[in-house]
């Protein structure tokens, strides 16, 4: 009998990303904390332009504060996961109550191996160790130069 195929590294990280976004969509802090504990390392380091948090409990609180003014909004992943050397990134869109994207962003993460699950005698796979969230596209590059300058 052939053992079941192992999921690809990309599909495992996509599942972590989707779990993280499900935590952002959860209105109940208890559900949010459970979802975060399933995809994040216990001392996860998170930062976005509105704040930063260290640990699942602090991230649970930060998400609640960030989304309090925006009930019914939820993030969804809008790209595949780009993965190399224990780092990954993906794009997401924050959708309002009628499904329109009101904010685009990018998550850049580092991964940590989870402690083995001794009750199941199996490795648990990677967890999110750091998450850096960026809102919107990068700012445009501004070029400055002096007309007529001679370089030589």
Report on this model:
The structure is a single chain. It contains 3 helices and 7 strands, in the order ααββαβββββ. With 152 residues, it is an alpha+beta fold. The protein has one domain: Nuclear Transport Factor 2, Chain: A (Roll). Strands 1, 2, 3, 4, 5, 6 and 7 form a 7-stranded mixed sheet that branches. A hairpin with a 2-residue loop joins β1 and β2. α1 runs antiparallel to α2 (29-39) and α2 (29-39) crosses α3 (56-67). It starts with 8 loop residues before the first helix and ends in a 17-residue tail after the last strand. The mean pLDDT is 88.
Q: Give the radius of gyration.
A: 19 Å
N-C termini distance:
71 Å
Order of helices and strands: HHEEHEEEEE
Number of distinct beta strands: 7
**Average pLDDT, to the nearest integer?**
88
Number of helices: 3
Query: Major sheet: size, sense and barrel closure?
Result: 7 strands, mixed
| CATH fold naming | Nuclear Transport Factor 2, Chain: A
CATH architecture: Roll
Strand content is 25-35%
How many discrete structural domains? Answer: 1
Oligomer: single chain
User: What top-tier CATH class fits best?
Assistant: Alpha Beta
- Bin the helical content: 25-40%
Which outline best applies?
A: globular
The assigned structural class equals alpha+beta
Poorly predicted tracts of residues: none
InterPro entries: NTF2-like_dom_sf (IPR032710)
Protein name: SnoaL-like domain-containing protein
SSE diagram, text form:
Elements (H helix, E strand, L loop, with lengths): L8 H17 L3 H11 E9 L2 E4 L1 H12 L6 E4 L4 E3 L2 E9 L5 E13 L12 E10 L17
Parallel strand pairs: 1-7
Antiparallel strand pairs: 1-2, 3-5, 4-5, 5-6, 6-7
């Amino acid at each position: 009998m052939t053992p079941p195929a192992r999921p690809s590294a990309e599909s495992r990280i996509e599942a972590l990303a989707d779990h993280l976004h499900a935590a952002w969509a959860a209105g109940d802090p208890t559900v949010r904390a459970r979802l975060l504990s399933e995809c994040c390392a216990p001392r996860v380091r998170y930062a976005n332009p509105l704040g930063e948090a260290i640990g699942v409990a602090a991230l649970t609180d930060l998400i609640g504060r960030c989304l309090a003014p925006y009930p019914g909004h939820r993030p969804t992943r809008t790209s595949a996961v780009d993965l190399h050397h224990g780092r990954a990134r993906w794009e997401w869109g924050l959708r309002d109550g009628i499904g329109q994207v009101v904010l685009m962003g990018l998550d850049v993460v580092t991964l940590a191996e989870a402690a083995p699950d001794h009750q199941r005698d199996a490795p648990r796979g990677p967890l999110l160790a750091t998450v850096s969230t960026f809102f919107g596209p990068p700012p445009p590059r501004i070029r400055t130069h002096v007309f007529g300058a001679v370089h030589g």
